[in-house]
């Protein structure tokens, strides 16, 4: 993980999609507004992984909200990290919580929450939610914008 913007290994350079999440590098850059409580949101509307039992593809939307502290996530590295799940076999719960914990490990945010909204498989959608702790007083938390399951439409 790079801590100096000049040392970023992926931004502005050709970078292949990592073969799996363990090979992916999440990079960070200094928070330009340290000491200010604000929310940053990443939405991955086409998140994919592989069912570890059937080998079939799973599709979902990940919504990642975090309140930065000293660092912010470099978005290209996050995109490549998320794409590394494309051929990775894991259950929805593992993917969703695993993504959040990797971000927490990389940037140590003041607060983070993730919503994993998975498309139905076998007739049942699985939504997974995790956060680092209670929401912070004064932090604006907009709705994640994903409809409750009714064919997600």
Structural class: alpha+beta
Quickly name the level 1 CATH class of the domain at 38-131: Alpha Beta
Strand order of the largest sheet: 2-3-5-6
Q: Please bin the fraction of helical residues.
A: 10-25%
- Under CATH, the topology of the domain at 38-131 can be stated as GTP Cyclohydrolase I, domain 2
Largest sheet, strands/sense/barrel: 4 strands, antiparallel
Work out the number of β strands.
6
What does this protein look like?
There is one protein chain. This protein is an alpha+beta fold and 153 residues long. It has a domain at 38-131: 2-Layer Sandwich (GTP Cyclohydrolase I, domain 2). 16% of the residues lie in helices and 27% in strands. It has 2 helices and 6 strands. It has a 4-stranded antiparallel sheet with strand order 2-3-5-6, covered by helices on one side. The chain is globular. It starts with 27 loop residues before the first strand and ends in a 22-residue tail after the last strand.
Strand and helix layout:
Blueprint: E1 28-30, E2 40-50, E3 57-67, E4 71-73, H1 75-83, H2 92-107, E5 111-118, E6 127-131
Antiparallel strand pairs: 1-4, 2-3, 3-5, 5-6
Function: Catalyzes the NADPH-dependent reduction of 7-cyano-7-deazaguanine (preQ0) to 7-aminomethyl-7-deazaguanine (preQ1).
InterPro entries: GTP-CH-I_C/QueF, NADPH_dep_7-cyano-7-deazaG_red, QueF, QueF_type1
Keywords: Cytoplasm, NADP, Oxidoreductase, Queuosine biosynthesis
Summarize this entry quickly.
This protein has 153 residues and is an alpha+beta fold. The protein has 2 helices and 6 strands. It has helices at residues 75-83, 92-107, and strands spanning 28-30, 40-50, 57-67, 71-73, 111-118, 127-131.
């Amino acid at each position: 993980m790079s801590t100096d913007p000049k040392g970023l290994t992926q931004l502005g350079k050709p970078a292949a999609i990592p073969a799996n999440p363990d090979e992916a590098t999440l990079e960070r850059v200094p928070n330009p507004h340290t000491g200010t409580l604000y929310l940053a949101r990443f939405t991955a509307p086409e998140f994919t992984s592989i069912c570890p039992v059937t080998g079939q593809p799973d599709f979902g939307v990940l919504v990642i909200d975090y309140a930065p502290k000293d660092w912010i996530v470099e978005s290209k590295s996050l995109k490549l990290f998320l794409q590394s799940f494309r051929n990775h076999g894991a259950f929805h719960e593992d993917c969703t919580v695993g993504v959040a914990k990797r971000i927490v490990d990389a940037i140590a945010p003041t607060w983070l929450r993730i919503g994993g909204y998975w498309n139905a498989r076998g007739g049942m959608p699985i939504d997974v939610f995790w956060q680092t702790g209670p929401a912070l007083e004064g932090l604006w938390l907009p709705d994640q914008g994903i409809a409750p399951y009714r064919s997600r439409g």
